[in-house]
Structures are given as structure tokens and as C-alpha cells.
User: Fold this.
Amino acid sequence: MKLVIAEKPMLARDIARAICGKEVSETARLPISGNGYTVTACAGHLLKFSAPDDVREDWGQPWTTEVLPIYLDQWPKVPDSGKENLINEIKYLLDQADSVIHAGDPDDEGQLIVDELLEYLNYKGSVERVFVNDNIEKNIVKAFQSLVPNETCIGAGKAAQARSLADFVFGINESRLATLKCHRKVSVGRVQTPTLGLIVNRDRAIENHIKNKYYETEADIFIEEIGNVIFKFKPSSQLLGEDKVLLSDEIPKVLRTDLPGRQLGITTIEKEEKVAPPLPFNLTKLISYMSKKYKYTAAQVQNTTQALRDKYKAITYNRTDCQYLKEEHFTEAPQVLHQALLNLGRSLDLDFSIKSKAFNDKNVTAHHGIIPQEMKLDISQMSRMELNVYREIVLRYAMQFMKPETSIVSISTIVIDQGILEYKVSRITDPGWRNGNSEKGIWIPEGAYKGAVISVAIITKETAPPKPYTEGTLISDMASIAKYVEDKEIKAILKKKDDGKKGENGGIGTTATRSTIIEILKKRGFIEEEKGVIHATSLGKEFFDLLPDEIKKADTTAKWWLLQQQVANGEADVTAIQENVIDVFCIHKDSAYVEADLRQKATVIGKCPLCGGAIVDIDNSKLQAYKCEEKSCDFILWKKQFGSKLNVADMGRLLLEGKTGIMNFKSKSGKAYRARLKFKTDKKSLELDFINNKSRGKSNRELGSPLKKQWL
Assistant:
């Protein structure tokens, strides 16, 4: 019997459906056997690193700097919580198997998930590797016809293991050191900290932006048989400032004085321009697009693609960093897109003889771009977000079989001493994939002309600060952080890391982890999002400034990548990156976070009704209350009152007016009622102020009940 071990149960059922020769339901219990195969699955990582305090007692609570750095040459792994039975089941199957087929996801993390389990269970038999990129049965069958020896792939798993161990040790030591010295529980991560740096630096670039005036010049020129045309002045490069604009009005004033009334020679050329459709999405591009168009968060888009892949089998592998496709996709496209457009109720004029640059085997590594699968779907079962994401993936793939947008462009130029005057207009001759309209403007045919300058206008503008991040633009910059790196060597390493990855250009993190990093930064209180825009909090800025230089930048990822390559190639042990982590940690262990204090400052809510002092919001694991800051005053109100939470807004109103707004409560029997809270005469405790609970024509919003939102 050949035992197939998939990364997830959903994929295992798809594999069983393809190779075991039997009907398999979406909820069929694993393992599934047939045709000489038995198919089972992990549930992501089944193992985790042992907690430090399980390895050594003095590595547990209370934390101390004396035991740092914490590391082991061979850090033990143990079953993850709740996964012990699954490990035992797979062990039993391994004992019965003649050989194993490793069906982890086609990336280094998928390689590690199965490899580490086989090592933990001490399996010594034959192992082959299969790469399954989508859930379509015929494609799975095809993948099983191209098995390779697993020993040719284990380098990727070892590299993932080295990175995983380093991240674990990095997090333990750096987070404990920062927590102890800053007097506040904080976390430090290899990808987390430079991502925070991107946001902090962008916020400061906006805050510190100094508006500079710059000048543009336009000349109204009359051309016989053409009419009046507005030419724009393009200065010589040596006249431009850092922002590639003209910062002085000296030259524009000269032009305004000298040009009017002059006859100037004009040269016009015509040329054809074609704009090809954009490539299919990878996860980074999809997140960026959906963020801009629909204001979805990175986590929402990533989770939605996972549902489209696992729940509906609607799309191919979703965590890809590649935008290119295989030649076989070109052959299968007519059937795939026919079904996908049928699912959407759409009809498009596609030309399947067109072969876009997306179809290129050389640019496809372990993954390819995200495209729909040939699967009949009932889209009425999808949520609005699932439908929107699916639709955009289908339409982006369909664009590969549409003509490019073709335009004829007329470019007229006048050479003057300070640069050129230029007029440019285009006519769309074939809208192609864009289905756009021709640009408006006066057309000047190719040739030589004379023009009389009627007038010259100077337009004063101001330089604008960079735009704040959205989740989409932040994800894009995480994928190309090298452009912000000043160190030429580090920049080169980051770019080399992504060689061959079309869509990545010197990035940090992976397509699968970037949205998680953003959510961690939110959870830690380092960043916040409002109306789709991300900013660093005051805590995030203060903490980033305290971080040692050697761990706060993208340099760490660059240096680790070089070591990972050595591990993958068998030139270094899996502990190589961990050793680098410890060396760097020891450099700043004693010097970092000197006199730092990030202890949470209490929020002032209002004046104490007893002494007039400040009432502050206390919210921690030990105390949740509103308390007077004056040591001599004993005023304190617990946040939980009569079974309901007294929030900050209601507390502020209570201190100001002596009573809250209308709040919702439940009796001990579970019956809902509404009332206000008000001070008793002693001003130390509260009582209920009941109201008439009948609506008497008032809206639900006035009575404090949320209005139910419906999607139509």
C-alpha cells in the first residue's frame, strides 16, 4: 500500500477522489483507500517547538535577563495541542505502508510539514514527492504521473526548518528582552519590526513634509489649418530639483516674456502604442487590487481565497507569489473560462488564439498565477466578498485572451534653449481589453509646422506628501521593501532572494504570512486602521524608535536568506540561522532599551464626583474599573454593572450629567430590559433608572438597539 500524506484534509479528499477510484464526499472520514493507495492528511503543522519552560525550569516565569539568550542546538518538537490522536493515526498507517507519497503544499512550508512528521515518527521507508497545484481531478491524476524522489526536495524543507527555528529563538529572546526592559509586554519579530518601520517612516514623511512650490508652464500656440493648441514646457533635466520639478519661477518668467509673438518650428510624429492586459493575480497583487477597489483587508482577501479554494474548488493554489502560467493552462483555457463565465452569468468576446506573455513555463516555479478552475458553481451560495474575489480572478484571467489596447499617438515638439515644448494626444484605434474611449484633443498629423506663440501661462503648484498606507499598498511595499534599503549590499541580497519570482522584488515575509503580520501589529496596538488607512500608534512609534538598529530593518531577512540558501544546498546545518540570531542578540543585550518605559498610561475620563480629581480608565488582567487618581480618595466603579459593561462613553456621560444614556440589560431570568445608570446619593455607587420599555414610535437606534444590516 502507498500512503499519501496531504497537508490538509480537504486536499486529501480531492486526491482520494482522483486516484482511489471511488466516490468521496466532502465530509468523508480519512483515511480513504483504493487502487493500492491510502490517503490521509495532516492538519497544517502537527508539531511545534517545546515551550522554553518545558525544556528548562529557569526558562519559565518569572522572566529574567540573566538566562538570556535562550537556545538549543537541537530544539525538541512536541505534538501541537489537540493533534496527538492524528499523529498516532498516521503512525499506525506508516507501519502498514510499503512507501509514502509526500503531498504537502508545493512550497517550502508544505515540504517541512510532512518531512518533520516523518522524522518525528522515525520513518525510514521510501518517500516520493507530488506537487498538487489545484484541486481538479484530472490535474491531480497528471501530477501523480510526475512523482520525484523526496530526497531531491528535502533541502527546501530544511531551509524552512532553519527559518522556523530562527524565528522561534529570535521571538523568545528579543521579545523577552524588550518586555523586561520596557516594562510592558511587547513582541519583536523578524518581519513584524521592519513592517512597523515602513508604517512609522511613512507617517513621519507625511507629518514632516514641507510643501515646496514648483512651477509648470503652458504656451498657447496657433498652428495654421490646426488651430490653437496648448503646449507644455518640459525643462532640461539639469534645471529640475530633487522631485523632478521646476522649483524656481525664473525660467517660466523668461519664457512668458520672450516667447509670445515668436514663430517656432514644430515637428510632429505619429506612433502606435499598445497596452497589454495585466498578468493574472498572485496573492500580493490580488490583495492590493481588492483593497483599492473594495476596501477589503489583507486578512479578508486571503481568507476568502482559502474558502474559494477549499470550500468551492473555484480557484487554483491561492498563496502563490507567481503571476505566470504554464503552457498547459493555455490549452485548457477555453474549457476553464467557458465554465467560469457560465458560473458568473457573463459572456465575453474572447480570442483563444491570443497567447499573452502570462503563458511562460520558464517563469513558473513551484506555483503559478491564481486562475479559476473548471468547476460548476452555484454562486448564490457565496458571500458577497467570495463572489467579488472570484469574479475579479475570472475576469483577470479572461483578459489574457483579449486584444491589447491600441492607440495612435501624435507627439508634437518645439525645441527651445531651456528644454522643449510638447503637445501629445492619442486616439484609441482598438479598445481591446480596456474597452475605453478615445482621448479628446486636437489631432495634429505627422509633419513639420510653424506655430505662433499667442501667450504663456505660469501655473504654481505645491509638492504633495506621500499617501498614507492602505493594507493593499502596505502589502505591495512588503513585497518590494528593497527599494527603501540604503545599504547597497543588503538591497542586492533582497533582490537576489526574489530572482525568478515574478511579482516579488526584494520583499519580506511571504504571500501567506503578510496579512497575518499586519493583524499581529494591530493586536499589539502598534498600528491602527481607520477608514481603510493605516497609521502607527504613538506606542508603535515609540517602540520602533527603541528597537536596536541591527534587528529593526529588512537587513535581518536578507542575511537569513543567504544562510537559508546554504542550508537548502546542504552547505550549512539547520542551526546556522539560529547561531546568527544569538550572535546579533548578544551585541545589544546590555545596551538596548536603556531607561525605556512603555508602561500604559491611564486614560482620563472625567472629574471625580467626590474630590474633583481625575477619574482614569484601568483596564488590565487584574483590574477593570474607573478609579480616582488621588491617593486620598477611595472612589472606584467596576466596569461590570448589573451584568452589563459600563463603557468609556457612558462613564464620561455619567461623570458629566450624573446618569448614562439608555443601556441594555438582562435580568437573571434572561429577559431583556433597558435602563439608565445613575449615581446614588453617596456618589460612590450606582442604581438603575428604569425607563418605559415600549418604543412609542421611537426608532430602534434611539432605543439603543443596533439596526440589522441586510445585503440586497
Remarks:
- Residues 694-712 have pLDDT under 50 and may be disordered.
- The first strand starts at residue 2 and ends at 6.
